[in-house]
Known about the structure:
The chain has three helices and nine strands; from the N terminus they run H-H-E-E-E-E-E-H-E-E-E-E.
Amino acid sequence: MRSPIRSTTRSLGAAGVIAALAVAVAASPASAATYATKSSSTPYIPLPGKPDVKITAELRVQLTDTAPGGYRWYSADMIHLSWDGSSFFTGGKRFNDVYVHLQLKHGGKVKAVSDENITYDLNHSEQDSKYVNSNDAEIRTKSTYWQADAVIYADVADDGKGYLKYDLKATPTIK
Length: 175
């Protein structure tokens, strides 16, 4: 039996196959997804008796799916995390607790949230970079125009100040 792809290739020619593939890819759900990313950092966080640390997170907001009736699914997540110290780190505890509070926003108002604890990573490496599979903040809605932002809350070890708050820049708005 002749392969349907081979038959199509013979009848359409190379240009026709490329055009047919372009139509198939354009119609696929993955190509319909809309997203925006933004990378931003805290200032250097002062650590008593240890090198200061700067934390950088890359946030993403995306349209993940659509459904009949005009419904759309949006999500916000953290796709990359990095941090660095200003000099050699000899060990010890840097933070009691550090987490990223991710927010999915519409019209400037928070509609969904997710928290990601990053304490272990920051306490066990001078500098590192990793792609993360963070918990998503998700919503199903008929509304458009969404963005993601985040706040990093850091409780520095041995400073007695409690949590410090660092606002990260928001992603561009997507439709």
